[in-house]
Specification:
The complex is a heterodimer of chains A (112) and B (114). Chain A has 112 residues and is mainly beta. Chain A has no helices and 11 strands. In chain A, strand 4 and strand 5 form a beta hairpin. Chain A is 0% helix and 56% strand. Chain A is globular. With 114 residues, chain B is mostly beta strands. In chain B, the strands form 2 sheets. In chain B, strands 2, 4, 5, 6, 9, 10 and 11 form a 7-stranded mixed β-sheet that branches. A 4-stranded antiparallel β-sheet of chain B has the order 1-3-8-7, with no helix packed on it. Classes of the chains: A mainly beta (112), B mainly beta (114). Chains A and B meet through strand 5 and strand 10 of A and strand 5 and strand 10 of B.
């Protein structure tokens, strides 16, 4: 069964610290992996999209990595800010025309 | 600026009533999607459309219907609302059906069925 598992479920860090969120997937065949940020009461917003051949992609203080062999991805947040408090969702896409598979998300809280 | 909007943002209804949630996008995207988001679940696909007059069922389509009469709008109808349909609903759109294309999400509609 195609699944996307994220860990941890929730995380609390101090402002200025770094953190890493994990995503494991069993989707096959694999086309691409996305990370979305969802602020409370808002829709998800794309951070990165990586294809099979890409193993790192950055968007400002957000860096996503992908290991297609082990079917794992991580999202690293550098020098966290209060505005990083949100849910981070890992989404995997199979072959063209198939639905996106969403993880349940990791809820990040950044405190001052 | 192009955008995707949903209305209403909040809705309370009673069991058995018909409810329609609106979704409107100004990107001129061919593809539009409806998802629901519940605690303990990732977003789940309800229905989707790849163009005018095209509609397809997603993972959790029972009790829902959509119609696509123009490019900009994909309204979601709950034929007879049930308490199990209490959820947050998100509409999304993308330029193409190719799996690499980014989906842009609306702000969501919180629906409560009493």
């Amino acid at each position: 069964k195609n699944q996307v598992e994220q860990s941890p479920q929730s995380l609390i860090i101090l402002e200025g610290k770094n953190c890493t969120l994990q995503c494991n997937y069993t989707v096959s065949p694999f086309s691409n992996l996305r990370w979305y940020k969802q602020d409370t009461g808002r829709g998800p917003v794309s951070l990165t999209i990586m294809t099979f051949s890409e193993n790192t992609k950055s968007n400002g203080r957000y860096t996503a990595t992908l290991d297609a062999d082990t079917k794992q991805s991580s999202l690293h947040i550098t020098a966290s800010q209060l505005s990083d408090s949100a849910s981070y969702i890992c989404v995997v896409s199979g072959q063209a025309g198939t639905a996106l598979i969403f993880g349940k998300g990791t809820t990040l809280s950044v405190s001052s | 600026d192009a955008e995707i909007t949903q209305s209403p943002r909040h809705k309370i209804t009673e069991t058995g009533r018909q409810v329609t949630l609106a979704c409107h996008q100004t990107w001129n995207h061919n593809n539009m999607f409806w998802y629901r988001q519940d605690l303990g679940h990732g977003l789940r696909l309800i229905h989707y459309s790849y163009g005018v007059h095209d509609t397809n069922k997603g993972e959790v389509s029972d009790g829902y219907s959509v119609s696509r009469s123009n490019t900009e709008d994909l309204p979601l109808t709950l034929e007879s609302a049930a308490s199990s349909q209490t959820s947050v609903y998100f509409c999304a759109s993308s330029e193409s059906s190719g799996s690499y294309y980014e989906q842009f999400f609306g702000p969501g509609t919180r629906l409560t069925v009493l």
